[in-house]
Amino acid sequence: MGRENILNTIKKNKPSLVQLPVLSRENFKEGKNLKELFIKNVEAVGGRIVISENKIDITDIIKNLFKDFNNIISLTEDINVSTINLANIYSAKELDNLELAILDVQFGVAENGAVWISGKNITHLSIPFITQHLVLLLNEKEIVENMHEAYERLSSFDEGYGVFISGPSKTADIEQSLVIGAQGPLSTTVFLIK
Question: Which of 21-35, 54-68, 137-151 shows the lowest per-residue confidence on average (mean pLDDT)?
Answer without folding.
Answer: 21-35
